[in-house]
Design brief:
Elements (H helix, E strand, L loop, with lengths): L1 H13 L24 E7 L3 H4 L3 H11 L4 E7 L3 H10 L17 E5 L6 H10 L15 E5 L15 E3 L3 H14 L5 H8 L5 E2 L5 E5 L2 E5 L5 E2 L26 E4 L1 E2 L9 H5 L4 E2 L2 H15 L3 E5 L9 H14 L3 E3 L7 H8 L2 H4 L3 E6 L3 H6 L6 H13 L4 E8 L6 H20 L5 E8 L16 H12 L7 E5 L2 H11 L6 H9 L13 H10 L5 H4 L14 E2 L4 H12 L35
Parallel strand pairs: 1-2, 1-3, 3-4, 4-5, 9-19, 10-13, 13-14, 15-16, 16-17, 17-18
Antiparallel strand pairs: 5-6, 7-8, 11-12
Helix pairs in contact: 1-4, 3-6, 5-18, 9-10, 11-14, 14-15, 16-17, 18-19
Length: 610
């Protein structure tokens, strides 16, 4: 009787919200819970269903964990504001999508830290799942709350809400971690955490205290740095199955990762630094994975993904191997993350699916000078030839990504954004194309583990003035320009380089009503400003100052592979406008990975002396 009443309340809640399909389940794939597993983990994505189901990482981890004998996995997503309200009013606990098992009834919860503005959603999920927010308040019966993802490599603002943090590739770490936790389930919570922290790449925030002063944020009693763990063999971590969503999602297709890492060395790009070294998947394994996933899902589009798909050294070979299989089934192939060069565009032009949609390119900066500062490696000639090739190959809609607020930026650099957009529109007209040029400008946020981690960030008003300056100077009706909300950029910057003192601010803002801060329609800066004030924390201290060379950072205890010396050297080179070449060209940049798993570092550490 109780279960029937509870189930009725759940369906009544779903009938009262705008998108009930987010909570319905009933997907195609291996989603049935196992009978009597010895350990259960719920993968929790701190955003709505359609965003979380587009995240390749959870598809990989879900398939991998399902393959473990004694361990089962389910999923949960953050309910939208309307559903949260219904759940609270009806006293409904947040449960997994597969079985509706309450989060509090799992042995462990695994959150991914993809974006700083999703932090409050983590607290929403914990609270709705009946789990104390702070790790220090949880008893032996509460699940262990685990974090992973890129944000886990600079986790201190959110660290007090987690028992364990995984540093590196989950495919490499989770099997041994979950097996160890399953075997130690009779231990006390503290003993389980202490045991897990001995596993390479596993960080227990509770074992480290911090001090703050003129030298920056410094960990106490830390004997050695915590090293990121990598999966060296990409062929060994391919998924055999995937879940087909029950509702429309952002990326509804087969996604196969062709390689991991990047050696281009863009100085603003955190992903290009923290995912080193480059590890490639063989074309044979790519084909095998596509076949398995196509048969398991029925999807009709395949996307070869990476940070820059055309940098895959065997891309041509992989496409030729895939072509007969895809043609026989009338499946389409796409390549996201194209660089601004003729090779990438010519390659993509041969893929039918790319011609039917817009083309996205990222010059990042408007002038050659500033592109050299950020080490983008894109010349004026590249910009010109790529735009011409885009229209020649049949694209009519082009989206251009830029940043504003980059180090050393001038008004002339901003004006260059408009010049490139104007040039794109003129090229389209010259070829009698009905070209539509969409320009998107994001505020630059200095990120940890990058050469720009020492930089000051533009304040809200400066970014707003730059955005309005750009928007007000668009004259061509074929060009539309939008810029990212400066308030959100400001908050992202605070938490990107923040320390553990921000934990109280996050909790206070959440209690004041902060939800889905990455969504423009729900973001409210006034809530955050009140939380900062009530917690006596100055957010501008984290953003609007240049760090000195030897300042202690809240992420210094985490070794991602690239060295601080390399990052500082790259910052110095940026000030001189010096390019650091892609190390796959034969010149090692001495980033720290040479001799430690990098297969491209045979050319000598020439740049280390400059």
């Amino acid at each position: 009787m109780f279960f029937d009443e509870w189930n009725d309340r759940r369906w009544e809640a779903m009938a009262s919200v705008k998108r009930p399909s987010r909570y319905a389940g009933g997907e195609w794939g291996d989603t049935s819970p196992k009978v009597g597993p010895s350990y259960r983990i719920c993968l929790c994505f701190p955003d709505v269903y359609e965003v979380g189901m587009s995240y390749l990482g959870y598809q990989l981890l879900y398939s991998m964990i399902k393959g473990l004998d004694r361990i089962d996995v389910e999923r949960a997503y953050c309910p939208w504001i309307d559903m949260e309200k219904e759940m609270r009013s009806r006293n409904i606990s947040l449960g997994s999508l597969e079985s509706d098992r309450s989060l509090s009834d799992f042995d462990a919860l695994g959150f991914t830290l993809q974006y700083e503005l999703s932090f409050t959603n983590i607290l929403t999920m914990l609270d709705l799942g009946g789990i104390p927010l702070k790790a220090s308040d949880r008893g032996d019966d509460a699940p262990l709350v685990i974090a992973g993802g890129p944000g886990a490599l600079a986790p201190e603002p959110i660290s007090e809400f987690f028992d364990l943090i995984c540093l590196g590739d989950g495919e490499e770490m989770l099997p041994s971690l979950l097996e160890s936790l399953a075997e130690s389930s009779e231990m006390s919570r503290d003993d389980r955490i202490r045991m897990a922290s001995d596993i390479p790449g596993v960080y227990a925030p509770s074992i480290i205290d911090w001090t703050y002063g003129e030298q920056g944020a410094l960990p106490l009693e830390l004997k050695s740095s915590l090293s990121r763990v990598i999966s060296a063999d990409m062929d060994s971590i391919c998924p055999d199955s995937a879940i087909v969503p029950s509702a429309s999602i952002l990326h509804d297709r087969i996604a196969v990762e062709v390689f991991r890492g990047c050696s281009r060395g863009c100085r603003f790009c955190q992903a290009g630094m923290i995912y080193r070294p480059i590890r490639e998947r063989s074309p044979e394994k790519v084909l095998e994975t596509v076949k398995k996933l196509a048969e398991a899902t029925g999807w009709e589009e395949v996307s070869l993904v990476s940070l820059a798909s055309c940098d895959y050294s065997r891309i041509g070979e992989a496409i030729e191997m895939l072509r007969p299989y895809l043609d026989a089934r009338d499946m389409k192939l796409s390549l996201p993350s194209l660089r601004m060069d003729n090779f990438a565009l010519s390659l993509a032009a041969g893929l039918d699916v790319m011609k039917k949609s817009g083309l996205t390119l990222a010059p990042e900066a408007g002038s050659q000078r500033l592109r050299d500062v950020i080490n983008k490696g894109v010349s004026e000639e590249d910009v010109e030839t790529t735009l011409k090739a885009a229209f020649e190959h049949g694209w009519n809609r082009i989206k251009l990504y830029f940043m504003m607020g980059l180090p050393t930026e001038t008004e002339e650099d901003l004006a260059g954004i408009l010049r490139i957009a104007d040039r794109a529109a003129k090229i389209g007209r010259s070829m009698k194309k009905r070209g539509q040029i969409s320009v998107s400008v994001a505020g630059f946020v200095p990120k940890p583990h990058t050469p720009f981690q020492w930089e000051a960030q533009d304040d809200i008003e400066t970014l707003r003035e730059k955005g309005r300056w750009l928007k007000g100077r668009v004259r061509d009706k074929k060009i539309s320009l939008r810029y990212h909300e400066p308030e959100q950029t400001f908050l992202e910057g605070v938490f990107a380089r923040g320390d553990r003192r921000l934990g109280d601010v996050i909790e206070r803002a959440w209690r004041l009503g902060a939800r889905f801060d990455g969504w423009t329609e729900t973001f409210d800066l006034s809530i955050w400003l009140r939380a900062f004030e009530e917690c006596s924390v100055d957010p501008e201290w984290y953003n609007q100052r240049e760090r000195y060379r030897d300042e202690g950072f809240p992420w210094d205890h985490i070794d991602v592979g690239v060295t601080r010396e390399f990052l500082w050297r790259e910052r110095c080179r940026s000030r001189e406008g010096l390019l650091t070449p892609d190390c796959r060209g034969g010149t090692c940049s001495a980033c720290g990975w040479q001799g430690r798993g990098c297969s491209w570092s045979g050319g000598g550490a020439d740049l280390a002396q400059n």
